[in-house]
Amino acid sequence: MTPEPELSHVDDAGAVQMVDVGGKPAQRRRAVARAVVRMSPSTAARLEALPKGDALTTAQLAGIMAAKRTAELIPLCHPLPLTHIGVSLAVGDGQVEISASAETTAQTGVEMEALTAASVAALTIYDMAKAIDKQMSFSVELVEKVKG
Known about the structure:
With 148 residues, this protein is an alpha+beta fold. It has a single domain (28-147), classed as Alpha-Beta Plaits. The protein is built from 4 helices and 4 strands. The protein has helices spanning 41-49, 55-68, 70-73, 111-129; strands at residues 27-38, 82-92, 95-106, 137-147. A 4-stranded antiparallel beta sheet has the order 2-3-1-4. The model has no long low-confidence stretch (mean pLDDT 93).
């Protein structure tokens, strides 16, 4: 029977710890996260009809800014030298789909930055549309993690 993997941010005594990545080689890393904000079709149509400088652009910028600050928001994340952050949003029937990618050359992965970007972009859409749609919800998932 294969033993269960251990939590990486907890030591043998159960105390939280930052993972020591000092002995690992720096490698090119990329991660992509996806968020979907579900809303009424009329809310999605109103968001899509806004002119330049609208809620979608605001959410895109919020996601990029959030990725750059992930280590300040998630206590045990390493600060990473991000080489690229991409956030795109697409309005569909009753939803806004967000794709967030983050890239680095470092000793640890960049999935938390991609997840943070997607989450904050979704929260920004939620914040900007909550006055007209009280039933919105969203989900976030990691869809890709590549090393090397």
